[in-house]
Design a protein that fits this description.
Shape: globular
Number of strands: 18
Length: 398
């Protein structure tokens, strides 16, 4: 799977990232994590203090998959709006999911604060504006559920948006205590912390075979070595679909631009995360070195060649979209890319357990909040593996 194309910003921010060996022998472990990107690293983080023998394998260098193009807006609201989740799953489940996402953001902040590699985590508020007049009622519904259940949010009128940002929108939902970080650094910080707790990490180690039995799983590498494990977590991001197709998943393409550093953000209220109700939508955030990440313009294609042919055109359009909001900013695209983007039909991430994969869990943190979903699901899987259950597992089981 050709996950992405273009030139990538995040790896340039951490050129001296840790290097790990490839697997050159047969090994046994309690838990094997397949995938060393965000999901795998978060699983390793939660399992590192359990006393279990844990190993992580990745077919590339660590962080060179989707992590290198993750735009890392850390939010608890998602593509499928809360009132839509309530309509699909009921109010109790939808609110519990949102609370778990809020808790995951807190956990990301705590992890970032104690790990040895700084990941530039910073709390940010979010502005979610109505793209069209008919979307105002959606924000009203969203606000009603959020305030009913104790989430901190405001509804901003057109005049209030204009006063804070200088641009006009029909209405906006303003939420508090979201965040941003450097996903490449965070990925390495988590695995560095896990390695220091004796988690074994192997990069450039491709899994190309398996023998799954009732009480153990044996996976084979392309170099002929075996890994015998009591439990396997497939945390390979969108490449999980190469191991097991999941009918609830949907793969499309998205685009992003990272601009030159900006000198003056005075017109950008509190450097909030910005997104909109339109589908496909545009979203924006800033970085620790004062760049702007502009993303979106999703395309309904899972064909890499079709995606990549549109990168240049999407680059120019994304810059124009940002300039519509902030016309005084002098912007150019220093980095730009196209990448596969995975979601689910029902709007929730999932943990897959399948009869033909005994002793295996598939962590599919698909959706716009992949880092947040991964943190929540990895925490659940730790309890499932160590105690046999978790009360919130049923929310995400497919």
């Amino acid at each position: 799977m050709k996950l992405q194309a273009g030139n990538y910003y995040w790896p340039t921010t951490f050129p001296e990232a840790p290097v790990y060996p490839s697997l050159e022998e047969d090994i046994n472990c309690d838990v094997l994590i397949v995938g060393g990107g965000s999901s795998g690293a978060q699983c390793a983080h939660y399992l590192k203090d359990t006393g279990l023998n844990v190993a992580v394998v990745d077919k590339r260098r660590i962080g060179e998959g989707s992590t290198s193009t993750n735009t890392a807006l850390i939010q608890y609201l998602g593509d499928k709006m809360l009132f839509e989740l309530v309509n699909s799953f009921g109010e109790e489940l939808a609110i519990r999911h949102l609370k778990l996402c809020e808790e995951a953001i807190n956990d990301i902040e705590k992890a970032a604060a104690i790990l040895d590699i700084a990941s530039d985590f910073k709390r940010r508020d979010s502005l979610y504006y109505a793209s069209y007049p008919e979307d105002v009622v959606k924000l009203d519904k969203e606000y009603a559920y959020l305030t009913k259940h104790g989430f901190q949010a405001d509804l901003l009128s057109e005049e209030e948006i204009k006063e804070k940002y200088g641009f006009s929108k029909y209405k906006a939902l303003y939420t508090y205590n979201d965040g941003e970080l450097n996903p490449f650094k965070f990925n390495h910080a988590l695995l560095d912390g896990a390695a220091k707790k004796k988690v074994s990490i192997y990069e450039n180690t491709r899994i190309n075979g398996k023998k799954l039995e009732k009480d153990q799983a044996v996976l084979y590498t392309d170099k002929g070595h075996s890994i015998t494990a009591k439990h396997v977590i497939f945390a390979a991001g969108y490449e999980n679909l190469e191991f097991k197709q999941e009918k609830n998943s949907v793969l499309s393409s998205s685009y992003a631009v990272i601009t030159n550093p900006v000198e003056d953000f005075s017109s950008w209220h509190k450097r909030t995360l910005i997104w909109e109700t339109a589908r496909p939508y545009i979203y924006m955030r800033t970085t620790s070195d004062n760049r702007i990440i502009i993303g979106g313009l999703d395309e309904n294609t899972a064909i890499a060649e079709e995606r990549d042919a549109k990168i240049i055109g999407r680059k120019d359009k994304l810059i124009k979209e940002c300039k519509k909001l902030f016309p005084d900013l002098a912007l150019q695209a220093d980095y730009y890319l196209g990448a596969f983007y995975g979601g689910t039909h029902d709007g929730l991430p999932l943990i897959g357990e399948y009869e033909e994969f005994p002793n295996c869990y598939f962590l599919m943190a698909y959706g716009d909040n992949g880092l947040v979903y991964s943190m929540a699901l990895a925490k659940i899987l730790r309890e499932v593996i160590t105690t046999g259950s978790h009360p919130d597992l049923a929310i995400y089981m497919r």
